[in-house]
Known about the structure:
By secondary structure, the chain is of the alpha/beta class.
Amino acid sequence: MTATVHDVAILSDFRYPGGTSASIAAEVRAQARAGLTTVLVHVRSPHLKAKRAFHPLITELIRDGSATLAPEGEEVTARLLVVRQPRIFTEDPAVPPRVRFGRAVLVLNQAPGDAGDPARYYAFAEVRERVEDLFGAGIEWAPISPQVRAEVLRADPEARLTAVDWHEIIDGAEWWRAPASRTSDVPVIGRHGRPDPVKWPRTKQELLRAYPDSPDVRVRVLGGGDLAVERLGRQPANWEILEFGTVEPVEFLHGLDFFVYFHDPDLIEAFGRTIMEALAAGVPVIVGEHFRPLFGDAALYTTPEGVLPLVRELWADRERYRQIVLHGREFIESRYGYPSHLARLADRGIRPGAPRPPALSAPPPTPPRPVLLVSDNGVGLGHLSRLMAIGRRLPGDTPVVVATQSHGAMVAHREGFLTEYIPSRSVLGLPRQSWSELLRSRLEHLIDLHRPVVVAVDSVPHDGIVAATRARPDVTWVWVRRPMWRRDTGAEWIERRSAFDHVLEPGEFAEPADEGATVADRDGVRLVGPITYLDPADLVEPEQARAALELAPGRPAALLQLGAGNINDIASPIARIARHLRTAGFQVVLAESAIATEPMAQPAGTHLVRVYPISRYLRGFDLVVSAAGYNSFHELIAFGIPAVFVPNRETALDDQVCRARFAAAAGAALIVEDPDGEDLDRVLSRAVRQDVRDALSRRCAEVARRNGAGDAADWLADLTLEKAGS
């Protein structure tokens, strides 16, 4: 009889009451949805009482068939073994597990100790020796977070750990609740989690600062509240305490306005699953600064004494509150969603197979295969926007998948694209070689998963991309290569053109001034007109645009869009520009990029908007002061909007200075060469004049070229047909 070979075996003690079991359940659900099989191998931990039952989430997985429970002592076979909870191996297991596997990972989901004792929970060297005796020296050791990684290396500086953390995952759709009316007349703050004294602030003072005894807030606690009451010696009148397990966490979170979590300073929190759950549920999170490496700008960071002022501030600003909720959800879906787990399984050779179709009298029609659009990280949304411009114009029966390293992955998702997020090298902090291997692996996985006919890459051909083209030569690879490179840069990228089957080059208004490396490499390149996300017909009328942006009628309005702020400091000239325009009677709107990593400095009297695409509302403005990046530049020219270009000089490849100079020479725009000098005031003094702006609009109408996105889409569609017919 042939033994069943499972895709994944998860070995753990399934009686753990908290995050360990919840994490296992999430991974099993992700695997089941992808058509992967999972077997659970139960090994009793010496730290749990023998009569404790399995966690309800684990029981449910076994009951509904998402996973199979292996009989104790029976040998199982799996392509990948995942071991969770190193404390299981602080002693030799009473019944040694019998698992045959191809690869194995031990997930270090708990630090060896805390600030007071680096080996309080387990001695890493002893656990490693015991685990390698059981499963061999080839097992991978994967920390669940930067905190755990640091503590393991503190215990054993020579420990060989995976380059990428095996982070928690969550299905945001199961937790999400759209922002609704307030839960009560005062803000409700709360927290949930397993009862443990170290999960609470150590002193009465810190405890009451984080969870105030104040009539203008309510405090709700699910799990461990009795420990806090014991520490205080009383239960504040505004506190409501629920016993752990009496309410489902998702239901509990939907009764909160803020999730606040502070703990004992000696505790090394392995990850913070409850924080992730709160963000996924649409509840703003207030935590300590040490959680920033995990939750970035999705959480709010303060000290216990800063909780109440922050709650009051956000309670009074409903729009900011709503934006925080939405950003938190986007962050969780892009970084910790189920696709991230499937990607790391694919990195280890575990990929979902196609589901078996039911028996039919005739074979079902073959669904059209998609086009995969891959964008670089970039510092703005240029790479991603160009690809989406093409993708939204592909024939309706052509599936489109967007894979991006950009923080703007959720922008593509909101625009209706099936979107895959690939964390960039800068986000992961990886060495170049490790990053290249990860990128190649992720691209191979996405190709195997979505089976595209054509892969179009708007990026320079990094090592990982070139390696992926060689590993998957059966698809058609297209390099979408923006022109106007800075002189004497990028020759090494041009040399890699041969890795692609085709090159597609969007047009450039300033082409006569282009002296970059792409100019001499146009043989066989498919050239189209300048690509913009929208066509002129997509723009709303001036009155509608002004109403949407809350601009006052009867006064001229100016838009400032100087970029994402991720290359250089764009804040310094903003105040001068805004002051000059306001003095001239303009309403001033600042466009904050959807992927800006730092809040934009906002001078007094200006209005801040974060809208994508802002180009939809350009007709509501009388003047735009903009960087000269490819997308914004060509939108302003194509739509006839009077513009002053302030070119960014810090870009690696894009020659914004040359582009802006050409537009100014052609009479289609003005240019500020030195925003820190007298040039700024001189040019703005011209730009605020109605006759100058009218002349710029007329000239744009004379020289504007047709959007090339449609032609690019038609060409890619033809490639898919050629490939399908070959």
